[in-house]
What we know:
alpha/beta, Rossmann fold, 4 domains, five-stranded parallel β-sheet, 26 helices, 12 strands, elongated
Amino acid sequence: MASITSEIASSSSLPKWEYDVFLSFRGEDTRNSFTDHLYAALDQKGIKTFRDDERLERGKPISMELLNAIEKSKFAIIILSRNYASSSWCLDELVKIVECKEDTRLTILPVFYGVDPSDVRNQRDSFAEAFAKHEVLIKNKEKLQLWRAALTQVANLSGWDTRNKKESTIIEEIARKLIGDLHYSYSGVHEDLVGIQSRVEEMENLYLSMGLNDVLFIGIWGMGGIGKTTIAQVLYDRIRYHFAGSSFLANVREKSGNGGLVTLQKQLLSDILFEKNIDIWDVQWGINLIRNRLCHKRVLVILDDVDQPEQLKALAGKRSWFGLGSMIIIISRDQHLLIRHEVAKQKIYKAKILNNDEALKLFSLKAFKQDNPLEGYEVLSKKFIRYAQGLPLALEVLGSFMFRRNLDAWESVLGRLNESPERKILDVLQISFDGLKITEQKIFLDIACFFKGMAKYHVANILQTLHYKPYIDIDVLVEKSLITISADGMLWMHDLLQELGKDIVRCESPNEPGERSRLWLKEDALHLLINSSVS
């Protein structure tokens, strides 16, 4: 079997194991108690577990099916109960499990069920009694030594002692560990997630260090295509097992129309409570259920792409809906929406564009399937990097489009981008524009066409009239991640947002510039003046 390291390094294939967990236990001790409860808990959480339910005849050798199941499992949970060592079957299983610890990187998790770990380690008490009987019946001294060595090795591993905690608590701890470790093993660090890990760590440093003694509302804010959702997904995968339940509600904006809020409420409750059929008649009924069923649970909830307060009211209206230690992460392009929902400004993470090195790596991964450009493509690649301005969406779209195209095609596409931006990128950015009020849209287009790089106060003076002052609209554009204001008061926007604004104006009259609402090219203005004077 391939090593776990090589499996994680390969982005093209999932790990080779067939089972997440192999359960080793003495049937007469725990089959209908701890083992059954543990198996049910793991099954409920989607952890694929092998459990041998057959009542085996005394002296029957361990089957090939069990040996194969051990080899094809990622984890082995060994429930070391009082009579575990009295079963030669269990001891043969144990020896195989210990072998696989080295051969297949099987992870062993011992549970000391009503026994002292030192008794297992040194084969005392019931374990001594069991071996006294084995020594009479089994003449193979080498096998006996293997059994003893396996017990000693497993007893030296960190595990759970049921004498010190409630069984339900131990089962929950085991499930959380498995969920966390299994997800890391399956997903690893995907090679295409350039720059994401450092941003996730920034979020962890900012918010997770605050402690979880209260219900924490956190925001992730930024322009479309900047990677907000990806950051949240990686963070979610990293910390979800620390909570009693979790839910990632993707595309809230898109799904919330036409009764979609009820569907999202059902998904939220189903994810956390592991209940498939939850009846919710309307949004208010859903609010009542969320509030009543989750108020004592420590949960992690991520609401992706929220753009309306009604969505937050339906899914995470108040902190009191969730148990202490819960974390609710809200992803939005609108900073003010987060603030209105009482997310403190210092708890809003502003997503950042990629730096030049990160941008080049991401683009190269998409265009060349490697970290750097192919020989001969270096200069053209840097032109694409300048065009994308660190926006992950643009880098991915353009890099994927240029994959295995020749140099002539690269030159052609660069020329075309200057005339007509890539539609797939603009469509994502336009979602933010479409959510603006009419006056806000007009200000955005004015800045895109004329005022980028000018002082805010100067632009406001130009645009204001007797009955209208544009300061609030400019502030809204900042809150919706469409423009930024530098430390010296200058208005800026991402080059692709500027392209979006100009493209919107061009589409007002594709063939006749004189019929557009704004002209920023001197040729178009000159053309209009000449035609007007002639007519």
